[in-house]
Amino acid sequence: MPMHLFEGPGQWYRGNVHNHTTNSDGLFGLNELATWYTRHEYDFLFVTDHNLVTDVSGHPSREILVLPGAEIGVKWQETFPAEVLALGIQRMASHMASPQRVIDEVLEQGGIPFLSHPSLSGISSAAVSRLKGLVGIEIFNAPNHWNGRRGDSTAQWDELLAGGHRLWGVASDDRHSGVRPELTFAPLGRQPFRDQAEAWIMVWARTRTSAEILEAIRQGRFYSTTGPRIEEIAVEDGEIRVKTTPVRSVWFASSPWLGVRRVAPAGDRLTEARAPLSALATPGKIAEMTDRFLDRGYWERPRVVGCYVRVELWDGEDGRAWSNPIDLSREG
Question: What is the rounded CA–CA span in Å between residue 97 and residue 113?
């Protein structure tokens, strides 16, 4: 059945989902933080202070929509310090409880639970797979990526997707710092004081309201990026097609042993790329691959393998973008 993502009534809204103010360990107050993101042409911003919900109700929302949230520490013996990124909550969930309890409490009040920076926190995909109700994970945390502290969690994401877990992926600034000339160092190894946004999400929604933005995120109608833009994704006529701003490569990432990468000739750029579904994790391809591996003795019995593809862009420098996983369970 033909599938066109990001079509129908709506438009793109640029937003950041992970930021801190002086109410926890940020160096910007709420108004200063919102002003910074307004100046950098953002449409919405989540304030996610550590273990508290900052009151954003009094902030004027004419230029930027400011939404509440929190980054909540959890007690999880098999990881390093770990946190749940809770979007859209109005009151704090339990602090330093089990991750499942925090997720349940976030869901009970209509919030959206993501897992913060799994790679930084040393959280295995096996540990994540045991959680119920998690909406997604933070796949790219800009400051931790640039300071060398494991900010990229796409490996865990693919492991989870390949195991049949449907999770969205967000990228963020996780901004603690401001741009202040009198400060010449980054406290505790935190993000350098850069006057630039580094990672964000683009949400396809009908209007810029709290309800519409939250629902679009909940449904996965967004992509994450550090620069490149995804303009169209379509699945039809036995292939997947993507249109983008100019990039060096397009990767159609899928389950293990499957996937397609398109690379522009030297000195050139791609603005469109296609891949046949026959090279991706459709049910038919998974069945074929499973039978082959069983025959060769790699497995003793069939296993569950996720039927998905996600699109990843690279501009040849620092710019990357990631679509959410596209369900291929009805294809092929």
Answer: 15
Read off the pLDDT of residues 203-225 as tens digits, 9 standing for 90 and up.
Answer: 999 999 999 999 999 999 999 99
Predicted TM-score (pTM) of the model is: 0.92
List the one residue out of 209, 289, 215, 276 whose CA is nearest residue 241: 276
DSSP string for 169-194: EEEE--B-----TT--S-GGG-----
- Convert the pLDDT of each residue in 235-262 to its tens digit: 999 999 999 999 999 999 999 999 999 9
DSSP for 35-81, written as a single string: HHHHHTT-SEEEE--BTS----TTS--SSSEEEEEEEEEE--TTSSS
pLDDT digits (tens, 9 = 90+) for 85-123: 999 999 999 999 999 999 999 999 999 999 999 999 999
Rounded-to-integer distance, Cα 270 and Cα 242, Å = 10
**136's tokens:** 């997604």
User: For residue 95, what are the CA distances in angstroms to 90, 127, 192, 248, 278?
Assistant: 15, 19, 28, 44, 46
Nearest to 176 by CA among 149, 144, 205: 144
For residue 148, how many other CB atoms are within 10 A of its CB?
8
Single-letter code of the amino acid located at 181? P
Query: Measured between alpha carbons, how far apart are the two ends of the chain, in Å?
Result: 10
In the beta sheet, which residues pair with residue 288?
A: none
Of the candidates 54, 129, 51, the residue with the CA atom closest to the CA atom of residue 96: 51
Helices H / strands E in the chain, number of each: 7, 18
DSSP letter (8 states) at residue 31: H
Q: Give phi and psi for 196, each to the nearest 5.
A: -155, 150
Rounded to the nearest 10°, the torsion over CA 71, 167, 298, 329 is 180
Question: How many Cβ atoms sit within 10 Å of the Cβ of residue 229?
Answer: 16
Q: What is the pLDDT of residues 145-198, one digit of tens each?
A: 887 889 999 999 999 999 999 999 999 998 876 544 333 334 444 444 455 568
Give the residue from 165, 65, 163 showing the smallest Cα distance to 115.
165
For residue 67, what pLDDT is reported?
96
